[in-house]
Amino acid sequence: MMNEDKVHEIIQRWRETPEEDLKPEDYQQFRDVGAACLSGGDGQQLLKFIQDEKNQGIVKSMGCGLLAPLVDKLVTNKKSHDHCQAAFTQLIMTCSSTTLLQSFLELIEGMDPGAISETILVLLPHLQTVLLQLDENRAAGVGLALSALHKQLSRLPVPYTQQQEEADEHGLCCCCVALATFTRPFVDGVKKKDENCNPTPEDDELKAEILKLCVSVSVIFLCTHPSKKNKTKKKTAYFTGRALCKHGMSLFLDLVSVTDFIFLVDDTRTDDLIGVFVFSCMLSLKEPLLEAELNRDRKSTLWLFAVEIMIILSAIRESLPGLLFFSSLRKFTTMDTDLSKESAACLAYLLFVQLIAMDTFPAVFNPVFILQCNMEHISQLLSRKKESHLLKGLALFAKSLEKVEDNSLPVGVLDLESFYSAPQNLRQVLTDCPIQHLRESGLKVFQLFINKLDAEAKHKFFRCMLKTSHHAGVEGYIVNNIRSQIQSTIKGEANKWFLGTELLPLLELVLSLPQAAETDLLTNMDKIMESLNLLRYLLTRDKELKSDADVWEELCRIKDEYLKMLRVCISMSRAYYSAEMKALKEEQKLKAKEVKEQARSTRLLKTITVKHDKVSHMSPEVQYQVLQSALVTFDLMESLVVRIDEITEEKQGKPH
Q1: I want to staple 495 with a disulfide (CB 3.0 to 4.6 A). Which of 129, 455, 468, 618 is the partner?
Q2: Closest-CA residue to 76 (of 102, 114, 45)
Q3: Cα 150 to Cα 210: distance, rounded to the nearest angstrom
Q4: Which pLDDT does position 39 carry in this prediction?
Q5: E strand or H helix that includes residue 613
Q6: Contacts for 511-517: CB closer than 8 Å, 24+ residues apart
Q7: How far, in Å, CA of 107 to CA of 71, rounded?
Q8: Using CA atoms in the order 195, 201, 207, 213, what is the torsion angle rounded to 10 degrees?
């Protein structure tokens, strides 16, 4: 380290050198001397140097170089920093605001990842002073500062429990409180300009930058939600505590009160400003609200936050029908397609299921129109694999159908893309979703949707599902519904779709085997059993069906072809499974386990699957039970075939 005389000599040279003649080496040397002074515990001496009138030229020219060592000292030293804080204040009073801002931005950009919150808390009060001192380009400065701060804050893990909130281990809560305080004078300044109705372009730009803060804050603490399975490993998670939400919403509501969009009606900046704000709200709708479990009976923090979002949308005069039904989001270039769709879907859920802001929704829209509009949102939600999305999609589907009259939806609605995609996505929930309560809820909604279709629409929907579902369980459920419709028609609800010639195309789809004689009877058991029961019912109601001789004749033809193919299939399957059971019994008698396993691995039994499990992967005992159960199923099918033959003979007046 340089001795005292050498330091005085250098200082004297700096005093005598014009600012434009100072070299980079001088700036670095000045910083090194200041840092050495602080590390040596001579903060008071450094403060005296900065305050000395003789050194004001040096401080004005090179004082910004002391900011970094001062920040390091304030962050790392937990003791009293009176001298350092005073030195910081003196530098801000002396140095150029533009140069200071640049230095602050560099400090924010390069801050220690392990001390983000501590550094931000040190910088924010002084950064606020610097920005308030700017006479020109204040809005741009605020924007740069907020952008840099957001970039660092987004790196902090977000607490997701009350205990973590209270501990605030990573300091995000404190930073959000400090950020709210930091923005207050800028918000107040814009508010005063608005009250006087004389905003300048600079004021408009500042307002835009403040509005962008909404987006930044929402990204930081409103756009993530912890995974229930992996909470400890998730870097960012939604913070459900009251304090953070309170300060975040404080920023939102302040901005709503600040922003009077009326005076900007003829201003070309209006769409940009509203677009930024709507983007922020819709971003928050997508995450975390789309991920969260919401309940009107339990006014949680997230539920209250959802209420505030709807209030904000109303405050900026955004029409809820416009956002939901008339694609007003598309006019905002900042809104990408996926965000727009998922956010609008969540908005529909909040409105129609949680009934948030329902009192502001126009009552002129009839239930069928609302259902048509919501089907796109329902399809969007049901296309996702997340439980939270599926729950909301099912709830929105059920709520949208609730007020639609039974048997009222015309066949024309099925030509709409969303009326095809939503039921298909629902069908995937029924067949592929591993969560039982979602499948059960989905089945209820599936039936509710069927109930709302008129006879022709039901007919078309059933044909579509029989052709596209490729799932015996769904097909069996459809066949059961076809039987219910035939029963209703016979009892007096006359329609041509489930009794006359229009019934035949449905029966051809019902009474068919997908792979003819090679059909896997176990996989298709649900549909086959329902089809046989439907056929038995139709034969018992021959009086109604024989009123049209052509229909009866065609039904008998379809029946005969189906039963003929089914008998062949049953016979082949029984023979195959019986042979497998016999082979299994013989193998169980073998003593050498290795020989037995090798023999079994090469047998055709390995191709048999039961509920997606390879039979060859099962133990011999389980294999035996499966094979025996299959034979019982074949016997049951055959008994139904025999009973149908008996009914046919009875109706024809022939002896058994």
Answers
A1: 455
A2: 114
A3: 12
A4: 79
A5: strand 613-614
A6: 511/535, 511/558, 511/559, 511/561, 511/562, 512/562, 513/562, 513/565, 513/566, 513/569, 516/565, 516/569, 517/565, 517/568, 517/569, 517/572
A7: 9
A8: -170
Rounded-to-integer distance, Cα 87 and Cα 83, Å: 6
Which among 409, 394, 403, 417 is positioned nearest to 365, based on CA atoms? 403
DSSP H or E stretch at residue 614: strand 613-614
The count of residues in the chain is 656
Helix (H) or strand (E) holding 610: strand 609-610
Q: How far apart are CA 144 and CA 209, in angstroms?
A: 9
Query: Is 609 in a helix, a strand, or coil?
Result: strand
Token pair listed for 581: 């059971």
Dihedral sign (CA 545, 546, 548, 553): positive
| CA dist., res. 57 & res. 95, Å (int) | 9
Q: What share of the chain is helix, strand, coil (3-state, %, to 5)?
A: 75, 0, 25
CA-atom Rg of the chain in angstroms: 37
> Could you please report the per-residue DSSP string of 177-217?
HHHHHHHHHHHHHHHHHHHTT---HHHHHHHHHHHHHHHHH
What phi-psi label fits residue 407: left (phi over 0), alpha (psi between -120 and 50 degrees) or beta?
A: left
Smallest CA-to-CA distance from 477 within 427, 403, 436 is with 427
CB neighbourhood size of 383 (10 A): 17
Question: What is the pLDDT, as a whole number, of residue 437?
Answer: 93
The predicted structure's pLDDT at residue 293? 64
The torsion angle over the Cα atoms of residues 141, 146, 148 and 149, rounded to 10 degrees, is 140
What pTM does this model have? 0.62
Distances (CA, A) of 311 to 123, 256, 314, 326, 627: 33, 9, 5, 20, 63
pLDDT of residue 383: 92
User: What is the DSSP code string of 21-35?
Assistant: G--HHHHHHHHHHHH
Report yes or no: 215 and 276 within 8 Å, Cβ to Cβ. yes
Residues of the chain with pLDDT under 70: 1-5, 78-80, 158-162, 164-166, 180, 187, 190-295, 298-309, 311-319, 322, 326-340, 493-494, 590-618, 653-656
Q: Is the peptide bond before 505 cis (omega within 30 degrees of 0)?
A: no
Give the separation between CA 409 and CA 394, rounded to whole angstroms.
Answer: 19
CA 447-452-328 angle, 5° bins: 105
Q: Which helix (H) or strand (E) holds 246?
A: helix 242-258
Distance, in Å, from the CA atom of 341 to the CA atom of 581, rounded to the nearest integer, reads 54
Helix 549-588 to helix 593-601 angle (10° resolution) is 150
Q: What are phi and psi of 610, to 5 degrees?
A: -130, 115
Query: How is residue 90 written in tokens?
Result: 């003196």
The answer to whether residues 225 and 302 touch, using CB atoms and an 8 Å cutoff, is no
The pLDDT assigned to 655 comes to: 47
Closest CA to 184 of 204, 213, 220: 213
Averaged pLDDT score across all residues of the chain: 76
Closest CA to 29 of 56, 61, 77, 51: 61
Distance CA 85, CA 63 (A): 14
Q: Convert 522-546 to b/e letters by CB count within 10 Å (16 or more is b).
A: bbbbbbbbbbbbbbbebbeebeebe
Return the pLDDT at 495: 79
Contacts 24+ apart (CB under 8 A), 23-30: 26/62, 27/62, 27/65, 28/65, 30/58, 30/62, 30/65, 30/66
- Name the residue with tokens 């129109």: 369
Which pair of tokens denotes residue 287? 């995450």
